Amino acid sequence: MSETIANGAVSADPSARYYVREHHPENGTLLGFWLYLMSDCLLFAGLFAAYAVLGRNYAGGPTGAELFDLPTVALNTGFLLMSSITYGFAMIAAQRKSVKGTIVWLAITGLFGLAFLYLELDEFVHLIHEGAGPQRSAFLTSFFALVGTHGLHVTFGSIWLVTLIFQLAKHGLTPENNRRLMCLSMFWHFLDVIWIGVFTFVYLMGVLP
């Protein structure tokens, strides 16, 4: 602290007396995002539990074996799993400080995500057109709730991905954008894990007699 004495009075330099420094806790954002993902796990756990209870309540309506088109669902699963692989390539490009490579792989990831959403919406439209909407039975209510919630997450993740592409194109691989890349990576892979559970628990088990 520096002080000057003038005319017998002590005066202090405010800039020297007070020192304020912005402080962002190391890995604080990633920790907060992990906490968010844990809360999302609770959300999906509740939806899976609801489907486990209601998944065989057909109310005289169609069953999963009658409704599900496994080849199409398998193709859709392939799209989402491939998007996870291409996002991994985007992270590798980011580690190599290649902005162009990161953007290209993120764009490919987004295309796979959009393909997944297209097939899922096509399935929903087809089911509703066949009279198998969410109001038809408890089974279909829980099905639309679980699969639809996952689809909403993929939609928001795709919007986030497009936003991140613009941020990278404008600002490059700054520490902030690297942190955003890491958070979106955790979110995207989390959606893949949830979908594997949906594909196994809802579709594969749904076609069993």
TrEMBL record:
**This protein's name:** Cytochrome bo(3) ubiquinol oxidase subunit 3
The record's function comment reads: Cytochrome bo(3) ubiquinol terminal oxidase is the component of the aerobic respiratory chain of E.coli that predominates when cells are grown at high aeration. Has proton pump activity across the membrane in addition to electron transfer, pumping 2 protons/electron.
**Keyword Transport on this protein?**
yes
Which segments constitute the Heme-copper oxidase subunit III family profile domain? 1-207
List the molecular function annotations (GO) for this entry.
cytochrome bo3 ubiquinol oxidase activity; cytochrome-c oxidase activity
PROSITE patterns cross-referenced by the UniProt entry: COX3 (PS50253)
Q: What are the entry keywords?
A: Cell membrane, Electron transport, Membrane, Oxidoreductase, Transmembrane, Transmembrane helix, Transport
Residue ranges spanning the membrane: these are: 31-53, 73-94, 101-119, 139-166, 187-208
Query: Of which family is this protein a member?
Result: Belongs to the cytochrome c oxidase subunit 3 family.
What is the membrane topology here?
Multi-pass membrane protein
Q: Where in the cell is it found?
A: Cell membrane
Q: Name one GO cellular component term.
A: plasma membrane
Which organism's genome codes for this protein? Answer: Duganella vulcania
According to its UniProt entry, the protein's GO biological process terms are: aerobic electron transport chain
- State where it is primarily located: membrane
Which InterPro entries does the record cross-reference, listed alphabetically? Cyt_c/ubiquinol_Oxase_su3 (IPR024791), Cyt_c_oxidase-like_su3 (IPR000298), Cyt_c_oxidase_su3-like_sf (IPR035973), Cyt_c_oxidase_su3_a-hlx (IPR013833), Cyt_c_ubiqinol_oxidase_su3 (IPR014206), Ubiquinol_oxase_su3_dom (IPR033946)
How does this protein assemble? Heterooctamer of two A chains, two B chains, two C chains and two D chains.
